[in-house]
UniProtKB/TrEMBL annotation:
Example GO molecular function: calcium ion binding
Keywords from the UniProt entry: Calcium, Repeat
Source species, domain of life: Bacteria
EF-hand domain span: 2-37
Protein name, entry field: EF-hand domain-containing protein
Family annotation (PANTHER family): CALCIUM BINDING PROTEIN (PTHR23050)
UniProt keyword Calcium, yes or no: yes
GO cellular component, as recorded: organelle
InterPro entries with a match to the protein in the record: Centrin_CML-like, EF-hand-dom_pair, EF_Hand_1_Ca_BS, EF_hand_dom
Amino acid sequence: MADPEQYRATFEMVDVDGDGQISPAELRNLMRALGQDISETRAIEVVVQADGDRDGRISLPEFAALMETYTA
């Protein structure tokens, strides 16, 4: 299991409104900043995939788990 604290700094940069959650719009902004212009639909799909508690947003632990799948 991923240690959420190792992803906190990145998470906080993505969580622009500081509410402790990453929304599809914030994820999309991140991807744009990285040169990947993803659609709104794709951003929602990624959030749904990562959203373990089904609240429509990505928490820090969910973000850490998502990052582990991409770096493993």
